[in-house]
C-alpha cells in the first residue's frame, strides 16, 4: 500500500495519535506516497468531466492537501485558482509542488467550516476530504460552500460506489471505522476520519437543503458494477443562476 518513500509504521502511529491538523502537518512531506492521496486516474476523469461542463473563471479546492485537485482546477479555470486547507504542512507541500502555467494560483490556510471568502468562485471541488467531517457538520459545511459560490456556481466531487455488504472491502472499511471510534473514545485530541460516515442519501438531502440542485454523472473510465451501476460518479451540485428573491413580509424588510 505504501511506496518506499512513504511513512513508516511508527510515523503513521504518531500521526494517528495526534489531532487531524497536527497529524497532517507530520504526514505532509510523505503524503503523496501514501494511498490516501487521490489517485491520478480519478483526478484525470474528473478533469475530463469538468472540461465538458466548463470553462469556469475562478475555482476553489476545498481541503486541498498537497494540491492534487488544484492541478485539476488549473486546467478548467481561466482566471484564478485557490487551494484552502487547515494544515500548514500540507499547504507548504502544495506551494512547493504545484506550479501550473495557466491561471493565477494561491493557497490559503483556513478551516473549511469557516471559509474566509465571499461569493468569488464559479467552481468548488473537493477530493477525499469528507471523512474528516461528522454527519452533523455537513449542513454547516455545505452552507460555507454555497456562500463562496457565485450564482450558477457548481460544487463537484467524485463519489466511489460503496463496497457490497459482506465483501472484503466492506469489512475493511467497517473495521477501520470501528478502530477510529475506539481510538477517539479513549484518546484526546480526536482524529476524525470515518470512511463510512459520508452516506450519499444524507449528502444529497443536505445539499438540497442548502439550495443546490444535485446531478450525478457517471465517470466512464471506471466502468460499471455487475448490477450496471457506475463504479465512480461525479456529484455536481449547482446553484440557481440568480439569488432567490424574498417574498411576503421578508421582501419589504419586516421583522
Overall description:
The protein has 255 residues and is of the alpha/beta class. It has one domain (40-242): Rossmann fold, CATH 3.40.50. Helix content is 35%, strand content 20%. It is built from eight helices and seven strands; from the N terminus they run αααβαβαββαβααββ. It has helices at residues 9-16, 20-27, 40-53, 68-76, 88-97, 138-148, 168-186, 200-209, and strands at 56-62, 77-85, 104-109, 121-125, 149-160, 213-218, 232-238. A seven-stranded mixed sheet has the order 3-2-1-4-5-7-6, sandwiched between helices. Strand 4, helix 6 (138-148) and strand 5 form a beta-alpha-beta unit. The N and C termini lie far apart (58 Å). 29% of the residues are buried. The model is unreliable at 245-255 (pLDDT under 50).
Count of DSSP strands: 7
CATH fold-level assignment: Rossmann fold
Strand order of the largest sheet: 3-2-1-4-5-7-6
Assembly state of the chains shown:
single chain
Radius of gyration: 19 Å
Query: Gap between N and C termini, in Å?
Result: 58 Å
SSE series: HHHEHEHEEHEHHEE
In short:
The protein is of the alpha/beta class. It has helices at residues 9-16, 20-27, 40-53, 68-76, 88-97, 138-148, 168-186, 200-209, and strands spanning 56-62, 77-85, 104-109, 121-125, 149-160, 213-218, 232-238. It has a single domain (40-242), classed as Rossmann fold (3-Layer(aba) Sandwich).
